[in-house]
TrEMBL record:
Its EC number is 3.5.99.6. It comes from Floccifex porci. The keyword Hydrolase applies. GO terms for cellular component: cytoplasm. GO terms for biological process: carbohydrate metabolic process; glucosamine catabolic process; N-acetylglucosamine catabolic process; N-acetylneuraminate catabolic process. This is Glucosamine-6-phosphate deaminase.
Amino acid sequence: MKIIVCKDYEEVSKVMAEKVVSIVNQKPDCVFCLPAGNSPIGMYKELVKMYQEGKVDFSQMRTFDMDEYAGLKPEDCHSFIYFMHQHFLDHVNIDLKNVRYPDACAEDLDAMCKQYAQDIIDAGGLDIAITGIGDDGHIAFNEPNSYLLPRCHVVKLDEATRKQNESAFKDCLTGVPEYAISTGMEEHMKTRNYFVVCSGKHKAPLLKKLFENDHIDPMYPVSFLRMHPNVEFIIDEQAASELDEEILNYYK
């Protein structure tokens, strides 16, 4: 486990993009588990810029979306695959045949999830995954629970998570969907290069809880990353503001 403290969100995004590009350049056909949400938008902007500058070639890269809202079609502007096209896929030279995402409108979502998990296995597993931390400690849509599921699955979203995401659905009469599809904790823990990005003062208590408590708790899913063999936290100074200097030095 490693903590890298950056000045601000802009620097977090640049550092994260540079790490992704380094991995892609070393392994052009790497498997990238794409995150949605506000946290990675800056990173995607930097990745597009680096591609336009000729610093990286995405033509062989393979991708799997990390999660998706159940019931949303790909063309729905609230769907995560729409987000990926808007911020990344449509601006680089990735082969769309190598882009995979959950079929959120499948008749049998459980069967779809099982196949999606198998597709990740058949691809050789994930080389890169990036996540933020939800206000309740969730990663992807692995919500706090008495147990966590290992592979891609359907999840009923906590009200706290729906509230956290409601600003993205302010133009939608039905509001945030009640259910989502999420990659599971086994898939996250087996990812070869795992990154957590956090920015802003509101993330500081979440990181303090994670690093000052040795417990692995399914009610705080991000705590499972304490057991990950290769995880880096790319955070800004505000997010790091409640961490003791001893902790920052230990994980430097």
